[in-house]
Every structure is written in structure tokens, then in C-alpha cells.
Amino acid sequence: MHSDLQTTQIISLLLLFSVAALAALARKLSTPYPIVLVIGGLLLGLTPGMPKVTLNPELIFLVVLPPLLYSAAWNTAWDDFCRNIISIGFLAVGLVAFTVAGVAVAGPLLFPGFDWRLGFALGAVVATTDSIAATSIAKRIGLPKRIVDILEGESLVNDATGLLALEFATSMLVKGVTPTVASGMLRLVYLSVAGVAVGWLLGLVVEWFEHRIDDGPIEIAISILVPYSAYLSAELIHASGVLAVVAAGMYLSRKSSLFFSPSVRIQAGAAWTALIFILNGLVFLTIGLQLPYVLAELGGFPRYQLLLYGAAFSALLIVLRLVWTFPGAWISWLIRARILHHDESWPGFRPVFVVGWTGMRGVIALAAAMSLPQTLADGTPFPFRSLIVFLTFSVILVTLVLQGLTLPLLIRRLGLAGTDAVDCEEDEARRLVVQAALEHLDQSRAGDPPSLADVYDDFVLHYQHRLTGLKCGPADPNRPDPESYSRYLDLSRELLDVERETALRLHNQRRISDEVLRRLKANPPSA
Q1: Which of 166, 186, 414, 478 is the most buried (most CB within 10 A)?
Q2: How many angstroms separate the CA atoms of 20 and 367, rounded?
Q3: Measured between alpha carbons, how far is 289 from 53 in angstroms, rounded to an integer?
Q4: What ranges do the domains of the chain cover?
Q5: Cβ–Cβ < 8 Å for 350, 329
Q6: Residue 456 pLDDT class (50, 70, 90 cuts)
């Protein structure tokens, strides 16, 4: 028992160290860390003597997926999601159905022994996309925000539709029950409505509680509890845990400005950033580590045949996405322009092609493949289960590495890099916020004695400096010049360094205790 625990600890430390080291390498290479982590996991998995690290589907769905979904939903703007809901729906529902149908038809042609039901199961497994690598590239290069919003919205919703398709596939293969179109639509409606309702009701309860506390550690603990509560509550009533988490995250994110104090927001943001980085890092590293075990279950297939299968299937999925994306984008634009009367033009070939090229798969697809039962209802082995797992692994590897590494070049060649102008909406909001603060200072100055004039002058100069950093808006002759503002920021950082070095010197001279040093670092004198 003690030996097993020690082995688990050593493996956990090795994985965490590998995540940190490979993420640092990715930063040096200016490459999205999911790509580097998957490749690093592949190399580690092929290293002799490497301890066995297997991916547990239940661990992924019950432990890893809820916080990742919640974080993504929290950072999704509700207005942008609603504005793009038609495009997101065509990808998250329409493309999933098209992918499942396409693989169901092509599977028997590509893989001898497959029937349409096995193709349906394989299509359901690989229908969901992972936007982490794609959006990390898109944001860094400056891809138009709308494309990023659509990709993130798709990855939030298509997990639910993909897992529903997998539920149908499992029923057909294991129980021999083929659902009708009507029953499928009713199940989808129930999954969606009940899942969203569970997430929304939980959000209401959490919002009520949050208004009555202001304590960072407690609120962080609640925020971590929310996604698990939403997911498990929805699963208990056989609704979509994915949509429950998404609904709770989007609702509470929208309301958080009313109940999160600035200090709690900073603490929670730091805690969640670290948590999501660790979970994503471990997930992508573990994907790479699965190769030896995936291959070990395929002893009956020659290696060259497996390579051909993996390449052909990956190409099929890329083509299916591209084939769907263009008519889907055109129809969704027609609906917005002709039926909803939105004032927008056809986006054009280039943005639509980029959306079509970013169909990267991730850990949900691999977990879905590994969650397939080992046997059918009559006790016979699940047909071609190991091949389905291998094909899923191949698709993840090809789409992450091939599409992930070529996406920056593609975006630049299409002329979409850095096409967004300065965000004048944000600048205008910041200008109005600062002006409101200056007006409040003027009102407060009138009620205070003249001896406090220096205090008010200092605050006024501080806010005028903030106005200097804004690129949009009318020019103000009373604002400090940009060079002055730049020097102001440099001096602020230099003064913080001086304060820190002085506090450390006092500690080294034993003039202050460890406790006082910790308090000075947590709340600097200039804060």
C-alpha cells in the first residue's frame, strides 16, 4: 500500500514537472503549449522505463471536464455568444450530425469489417472539438474576435451533442436498439432544456449566497464547487451536465460584477488561472503518453496499415468539416441578414476557411473512445474497439500538430493576422470611467478643507495619466503627454523594486521578522 502511494506521488511529481518544463519550452518556441505537451508526452511515453500512465475516462468526465467547461463559459461574453448563436448552432449541432453521418457512411468503405453502426460510434467519438490550441493561436496572432468567439462557442456546446450521439451509438451496438429521429430530437430537447435549467437554478442559489459574503478563500472554494455540482446534478436527472456547467458559468460570470469585490476577483482569477493551466497541461501530456498502450492493443494490424488508416481518417474529418463550414456559414448569414435583419455583410471565403481549418480534437474525444464498453450485451467483445481508440488518437495527433502548427502561417497568408483595429469601445469606456472618477474628486474637494489640496492634486494627476494611455477619443490639452505617462509607469515599477529590496535588506539585517516581511510583500507601503 505504501509502495503504491509512493509510486503515485512520484508519477504525479514527474507529470507536473514535465508540464511546467514543456510549457516553458512552448513559450520559448512561441508555440501553443497543447502542441508541445502532446509531442512531449509522445516522447516520454516511448522512453524506456517510463511508468504507466493511463487515461481514465471517468476521471476526465467527472473531474477534469467540469472546471474546464466552467472556466471557458465564465470567460465567454453573453452578448457575443447570443450574437453568434446561429453560427455556433450550425457548428455545434449541424456539424456534429454531419460528421457522425459522414463517418457512418465512409467508415465501412475505409475500414474492412466496419458497418454503419460502428461508423456512427466512431463519428460520435470524434465529433467534438477542442478550441484551446486554436484560440490560443488566434488570440496571439490577432485573428478577428468574431472568429475566436465562434470557435469558443462551438467547443462549449458541441460536447453535449457529441456525447448524445455517443449515447445513441452505444445503445445501437450494445443493446441493439436503434433510436428514431423523433426520440432523438426529444432526447436532445430534454438534455438541453433540463441541463440549462439546472445550471441556471444553481447559479441563482450561488448568486444569493455570494451577495452575503466577502471572503476570498470561501468564494474560491464555492467557485470550484459550482461546476461539479452543476454537472452531477444534471447527470442525476439524465440531463446534459455539459450544458448545466456552461449555463451556470455564463450566468454567474455575468452577475459576478455585482457580488465579487476587487480583491476577491483578483484572488479568484489567479487561483483559476493556475488550476486550468495544470488541468490542461496534465490532459495534453497524458494524451501523448497513451501511444504505447494504444498500439499495444493493436497487435493484429501491421504498422503501415495503421498509419494509412490514421492518415485517411484524419483527412476525412478535415474534409467533412470544410465541406460543412461553407454552406453552414452561408445559411447562417442568410438567416441573420434576411430573417433577423442584422446589418452585416457576407464574411467572405478567408474567415470561413479558417473556421473550417480549426477542427482540432482533444481529450474529450479520447475519453469518449476509451469509455466504449469492453463487451456487448451478449458478452461478446465490442467489435474493433481498439481500432476506434487508435483512430481517435490519430485524429487528435494530426489535427493538433498539423493544423495547430500550420494555422499561424495560414492566418498570415490569408491576411487575417492583426486585422482588428484599436478597440475604441474599450478606450471609450475607460475614458468615461476615469472622467466619472475626476468628477467625483471635484465634488469631494468642495467639502474638504484646503489643507487636503495636495491629496486631491495627486489623485487628479494619477487619473489624468490614465487618460494619456487611451488611443481613442478627443484630445485633451490638460492631459500629460504620452512620454510622461510612459515614464510614470517605469517609475512606478522601479519604486516597487526599491521597496521590495529595502524590505529584504531590513529582513536580512534582522530588523524585521518573517511575519512583517510577509505582510509588507502582501501589502506594499505604496499600495
Answers
A1: 166
A2: 23
A3: 7
A4: 39-413, 431-479, 481-527
A5: no
A6: confident
